[in-house]
Amino acid sequence: MKNNKKYSFRKFINDVHLWLGLASGIILFIVCFTGTVLVFEQEIKDFFAEAFIVEAKGKKQTMSSLVKELETSNGFYVTGVTMPNDENKAYTFLVKKDVKEQRGSRVLVNPYNRAIHQTEKTKADDFMLTMFKLHRWLLLDTNIGGPIVGVATIIFLLLSISGILLWFPKKMKWRNIKQGLKIKTNANWKRINHDLHNALGFYASIFLLIMAITGLCWSFESYREGLGYIMGTKIFDRSSPEFQLENKPDATTISYDIAIKIANTNLNYPGELSVTFPTPKDDYYSFRKYNDDNWSPSTSDKLFLDTTGTVLNVEYFDEKPLNQKLAAVIKPLHTGDIFGSFSKTIYFLACLIATSLPVTGTIIWLNKLKKKKKKRMGD
Predict the structure, then answer these.
(1) Domain membership flag for residue 249
(2) pLDDT (tens digit, 9 = 90+) per residue, 339-374?
(3) Of the chain's two ends, which shows fewer C-beta atoms within 10 Å, N or C?
(4) What confidence score (pLDDT) does residue 3 get?
(5) For the chain, how many structural domains are there in total?
């Protein structure tokens, strides 16, 4: 018999969803699985790292003496320090063995007795690095793996949008909508698998859309620049500010401790303070402070100070225009850090669901193939 059914828009969306999902399933499974693991990357690393106990006994050493200890006793070149707002936590110094080093390494220091603990890489660090390379480049060369992951992310974005459209029933009645919001656990395994794909996919969809839209910023430079153009501000702007510093031969250079005191006076609230010390290239202090009472642990205020103690500039995050705020939180929006442990937990669950979608979706397709085969045999 001739099939008189018209090829509807919904059927088109369904076919797009199906074939894009089948074509990218393995890659999306890898990217989503590694993303699930990377949500709690720092917590996992800290769990396996060697403990460095700090007890708040006595008076804290001056910052100048701590830096001198690192430079004279260990031969380090100290470039900065992070001071947590917790009396029982170590200071984290960024040091280099050679000034020409690009990144440097981290050293923990007890601010009370000057005890030094050099962080060593653990198996957890190696495992997380492998997960990161899988997530970003599929363990391939960056020029090959990066675009593949980027294209898969675009497909993932299309799958999320088409999945949302397909979730809405043909007849918009509450009874039909309610069915798409729950998993019928007392049904057969095929129905349960369908509900897992349909309902869980819908619940995670908004977070998956955010991850895909922000994730493309790392995959394609043209996308990042285009998004920045639309937003009216640069994304991932890591450029240092340029100041016209006056050359004052007779001016007194302030110590690290006075510089930190000035920064805390201007940024007068409790929170973690990170300092980048002056260098021959950038002869000024750069401070970044994270307010403990802020809505997000990922946002910070910045302060720049010259070596004589003059405040060059203060950047308060809350006073920035909305577009600059959004650009500044692209990374925490992608990783789930935006609201700390609360958002990380939500992202972990969303990524876990995303990892399952290629599997449950493929099973749905296989079941439909079997059903069609049986129907043809019956005819």
Answers:
(1) no
(2) 999 999 999 999 999 999 999 999 999 998 888 877
(3) N
(4) 56
(5) 3
